[in-house]
Amino acid sequence: MTEGIYSYIKETFGMPDVDIRTYSPLTLAYIGDGIYDLVIRSVVVAGGNTRAGELHKRTSQIVKAHTQAEMMELLLPLLSEEEQDIYRRGRNAKSPTMAKNATMSDYRKATGFEALIGWLYLRDEFPRIVELVRFGADGMHLSF
């Protein structure tokens, strides 16, 4: 498969092309949340077979808003202008809900981070997602 993951899904399900510039930042964050979770779960599971509860505990510590906000601080200098713009749009989006156990600041930064991940995914830039998550995880000394 030489095409990206999202293109493969679109082709398989016969999904129409959509201009992702028309998606709201919260829509981008919605898909980005799932993609980020998939990347982290993949790394956690690669650590070895263990109880599902333990896998969930490890993953939850990494995908929570506070950790995403800290990771975003490390990633900002690496982002292109376009990526920074997507992050800012997500960060500034007015969400009707807020994450449990998160400050408003962390929640907004996390939403921006997830919007960026979603935008990259919908552009079939999965390697860029993995590169950014790897850099952030290394910079934060996260243990999986």
Describe this structure in words.
With 144 residues, the protein is mostly helical. It has helices spanning 5-13, 25-46, 52-63, 65-75, 81-92, 104-122, 126-139. The longest helix is centred in the N-terminal third of the chain and has 22 residues, at 25-46. 69% of the residues lie in helices and 0% in strands.
What's the short version?
With 144 residues, the protein is mainly α.
Oligomer state of the chains in this structure: single chain
Kindly report how far apart the N and C termini lie: 28 Å
Overall average residue pLDDT: 93
The percent range for helix content is: 55-70%
Radius of gyration, CA atoms, in whole angstroms: 15 Å
Strand-pairing-aware structural class = mainly alpha
**Tertiary shape:** globular
Strand elements, count: 0
Largest sheet features: none
**Total helical segments:** 7
Low-confidence sequence ranges: none
Order of helices and strands: HHHHHHH
**How much of the residues is beta strand, in percent?**
under 5%
Topology:
Blueprint: H1 5-13, H2 25-46, H3 52-63, H4 65-75, H5 81-92, H6 104-122, H7 126-139
Helix pairs in contact: 2-3, 2-5, 2-6, 4-6, 4-7, 5-6
Name its key features.
single chain; mainly alpha; 0% strand
